[in-house]
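2024-03-11 09:14:02 DEBUG pipeline.ingest accepted 1 chain
2024-03-11 09:14:02 DEBUG pipeline.ingest length=239
2024-03-11 09:14:03 DEBUG pipeline.predict start
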Amino acid sequence: DELIIVAPHIKRIFEENTVGINKGNLKIDVVFCGVNANAYPLNIKRKGFNLGYLGYINFKKNIPLTLDIFKKLYDIDKRYKLYLAGQFQDSRTLEYIKYFIKEYHLNNSVQFDGWQDQDQKIKWFKKINYIVISSIDEGLCFAAAEAMCSGVKPILHNCEGIKDHYNKKYIFNSVDEAVDMITSEDYNSNEYRRYIENKYSLDIEVRKIYGLLNNLADNNKNDINPLKNGSCKTEIQDI
């Protein structure tokens, strides 16, 4: 009866790829993903030299662009380091990264941190100053949102979907722009956290979903709003 999609460009792609398919009276709504900011302690940070990437490492994540950004920074100042935390899903990407590190003698400046569970992730955010996301496609991008909640400055590639979620001041169009954002004196941990809290709170997402569920109920006779009693998890299970 109702389909929820988490980003406007994904809705467009879905509709383009289902032309000619009878979807009946299906309603399609966009509800942005939410983040539980309380799960990520805020660390007040400042301009520094530690860049990080968090998440799966595959073609979509465009790590070669991140490496180009890092190399330009490294040529400016050898104190810059890049921490890659995640799991490889593409052997060619892994081989390219290994080649890049060897070719430019970056063994001591690029570090593989592996997959991070929740507790490890919170500790990992403490050591980085910038989260660099060079993806060719993104929605909310949880790694960026979680990092911002933790006080980390976001450096986000201008791919389809990213401008639906983030202010243009956090978005770069070229290697030079990314380098300028990282070397800039502009750094405000409180601002980054507030941005996520105000726009992508988990409460906002849950309220929108329950609003859609209530609209599906006959004449709103069955009010299924767990937020009234503060027990979201229990009511979802009951449903």
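2024-03-11 09:14:41 DEBUG pipeline.report Confidence is low (pLDDT under 50) at residues 231-239.
2024-03-11 09:14:41 DEBUG pipeline.predict end
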